[in-house]
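TL;DR need structure tokens for one chain.
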Amino acid sequence: MPKGISKITGLGNFQDRHHTEETILKMSESQRKRIAEQGFFHLPGTRAKMSQVHKGQISGMKGKHHTREAIEKMKPTQFKKGDIPFGKGLTKETSEIIRNRSLQHSLAMKGRPSPKKGMSFPEYGGSNHWNWQGGITPEVNARVNSLPWKQLRKEVYKRDDYACQICGKRGGKLVAHHRIPYRISQNDGIENLVTVCPHCHYLEDLKFNRELSGIENS
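>> reply
TL;DR here they are.
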């Protein structure tokens, strides 16, 4: 289904770009300092949320293999024999200090609002967003929350036996996906709808938008 503004910004404006080696080293050093000073990188609760978000997602490398050239490039960054793992050899007192700092920081941050709460980033929103579709969010919300649409969606699920027609996943959260997006076809007919899971829905929308972008840029 079409959206006004996509909630998935994983690709964003960084698509097809890479960090420089200098930036990667700075990021790595920053992470090491944070772990050494605070005793953690992600809190257990945060790790659990991250795990839940990625649960059921298919790895982009599934069924693929690194090229010989890529393997050679990765070798200098791999853990070498004789390297000392982080945290190995710490005394009991040092480990206790790190643990206490972690607990203190966790308690200090509890209940505090996010520093970015209430902030807006107009340079990445609205018509500047990579998936901007003309400000159709209110129109879409009114349509998908209407009774006729909900009844039609049930008919599509029943016709497709409540299973994703791409990956075969049955039950759970399902989406009535437009084969040709509604913003283009204006067609809510059952022949233009198919049952998919949220993951396949995202991939199909991404695939269609990329193909459409390629046509428009040609």
